[in-house]
Amino acid sequence: MSAEVEAPRPSHPAPWPHLAVLAAVAAWFWLYGRLPAISEALTALIPVERHSHTGEALAFFFYDVPKVLMLLALIVFAMGVVRSFFSPERTRALLAGRREGVGNVLAALLGVVTPFCSCSAVPLFIGLVSAGVPLGVTFSFLIAAPMVNEVALVMLFGLVGPVVALTYFSFGLAVAILAGWVIGRLHLEGWLQDWVRDIATGASAPEEAGGAPLSMVERYRLGVEALREIMGRVWLWILLGIAMGALIHGYVPEDLMVRIMGADAWWSVPAAVVLGIPMYTNAAGVIPIVEALLGKGAALGTVLAFMMSVIALSLPEMIILRQVLTLRLIAVFIGVVGSGILAVGFLFNLLF
Amino acid sequence: MEIKVLGTGCAKCRATVELIERVAREAGREVSVVKIEDLRRIAGYGVMSTPAVVVGEKVVHKGSVPAPDEVLGWLA
Question: A78 and A192 in one domain?
Answer without folding.
Answer: no
